[in-house]
Amino acid sequence: MHKTTILKIDQVTHDVKRFRIAEPEAFNYTVGDATEIALDRDGWREETRPFTMTSLPEEKSLEFTIKGYPEHDGVTEKLHQLNEGDSLLLAEPFKTFRYEEPGVFIAGGAGITPFMAIFRHLDKEGKLAGNLLIFANKTSEDIIYRDELDAMDGLKVEHVLSREDTAGTHHGEIDADLLKDLVPDLDKRFYLCGPPPMMEALEEVLKSLDVEPDSVDFSD
After folding, report:
1. N or C: which terminal CB in the chain sees fewer CB atoms within 10 Å?
2. Residue 12: Cβ within 10 Å count
3. Helix extents (H) in the chain
């Protein structure tokens, strides 16, 4: 495990924080990679949880965008209680997603995090065109990095809110009817990341729409 330090903490939404962390030496990662993080505290060093880097490899520090779950009182909630200057433990990076071609990204809540580095990289390269993000959240207050995503040139963004009916967004769940409406041509690559129940439901929806299983990517 690499021992490192928290450089900066920002509030992104009411329950999501962005952590800037000093990048350890020889920590080589690729866009779409994640790592395991542990608290550098007695009783917690073996309690690791996976988080995706939302920064790009060429940046001089690592960025993690982490949602807190107070009801669990686990690693994520303990992370939310840390301060700038506190130390963390990082494992070696590992692969989650690899961008292969333009397609449809479907994210639920904090499931947007593996896609952020991909979008930022494509945005920097001017290669976002042809990609659609369907982003599901409970309310507009839960949308992580909304302004940044909506401003990305070439990325089409559709917001789906389950507990709020607001102009400019879709209300309800991501079902077959909504997908057919938003993606008239289903012969595309799909990238999916979100809570397990949502992923299982989407898998069934895509199957019912005869989307080829080979063209659907879940995180590894």
Report:
1. C
2. 16
3. 75-80, 113-125, 146-151, 176-182, 196-208
Residue 219: pLDDT band with limits 50, 70, 90:
low
* Consecutive H or E run containing 206: helix 196-208
> Exposed, middle or buried by CB within 10 Å (0-12, 13-18, 19+), for 14?
exposed
Give the separation between CA 71 and CA 119, rounded to whole angstroms: 31
The structure tokens 């593996």 sit at 114
From residue 57, give the alpha-carbon distance in Å to each of 30, 40, 170: 6, 24, 34
Compute how many other C-beta atoms are within 10 angstroms of the C-beta atom of residue 127: 13
Model confidence, pTM:
0.92
pLDDT at residue 72 in the model:
67
pLDDT in tens, 23-49: 999 899 999 999 999 999 999 999 999
Q: Enumerate the H helices of 69-175 as residue ranges.
A: 75-80, 113-125, 146-151
Summarize pLDDT for 171-212 with one digit per residue, the tens: 999 999 999 999 989 899 999 999 999 999 999 999 999 888
Tell me which DSSP letter residue 24 carries.
P
